[in-house]
Specification:
The protein is mostly helical. The chain is built from three helices and no strands.
Length: 126
């Protein structure tokens, strides 16, 4: 029985040691509450935007929209330029191929001319 009473006494001691008193809690919370109320006052003072602030924000939004519009226009111009460049590149390739074909035809023509000349000389000898 004595052991039971001793055990209950020790348990009571442990449970009371972990509890904070109301005065202790207030001493810890009151400075925080004061700081919070000061911060809230500062935030409320800063929270109200003036007409100049709103105007500056509107101007910044307008300028950013203009920049976005200009960027979109440039993107369209670049796309058109890329298409034109592709067309020019294709035309250059066709011209290069035509030039190669003309060179080949000129070589064939020279070969035919040489053959014709040989045939003519052979005919002259006969």
């Amino acid at each position: 029985m004595k052991k039971l009473i001793g055990l209950l006494g020790v348990m009571a001691l442990f449970t009371m040691a972990g509890c904070a008193t109301e005065g202790f809690v207030r001493s810890q919370v009151d400075p925080l509450a004061d700081r919070l109320s000061k911060l809230e006052a500062q935030v409320s003072q800063l929270g109200g935007m003036t007409a100049a602030d709103k105007d500056a924000i509107k101007q910044a939004n307008d300028r950013s929209q203009q920049a976005l519009d200009a960027a979109n226009k440039m993107a369209g111009d670049v796309k058109i330029a890329n298409n034109d460049a592709k067309k020019a590149e294709d035309a250059a390739m066709r011209a290069e191929n035509a030039a190669k074909e003309a060179e080949r035809a000129a070589r064939e023509s020279q070969q035919m001319e040489k053959k014709s000349e040989k045939i003519f000389k052979l005919e002259q000898k006969k």
